[in-house]
Amino acid sequence: MKLPTYHLKSNYSLMTFEFISKGTKGEIQKIIQFQKTEIYELYNLAFGDKNITTGEINDEIISNNGDLKQILATVISSLNIFTDRYPNYWVYITGSTESRTRLYQIGISIYLYEIEEIYLVWGNINDSWERFIKNKNYNGFLIKRK
Fold it and tell me: Using one digit for the tens of pLDDT, what is the confidence trace for 73-97?
């Protein structure tokens, strides 16, 4: 993906990343976290606005800051950094709503050729996993470095 990204700041473990979205509604702090699950070598990718008071992710706010492509490219950049350090980990991605999951699916579909050069991509449909296919609606996604 040859899209511009925002500057990422991360902790030492590369499990948490932060950046600032700059757009039509000003500057909005964003946070990306790779959260360990109960399944061995499976991490959940959590993303959203940073609650300035608590430092936690709010994945229900709709910012509409006009920089969606740059934000998605930045999230992918964090995924690249994370999987460089942890190439054996699977990353689970889903939205907090159906429309957000659909947005992630559209992003994957648009850049599928480039993504598949680096990653294995799977989609979940009816509690079953299959290799990602464009124009098919999924409930979530699994991504792993090749």
Answer: 999 999 999 999 999 999 999 999 9
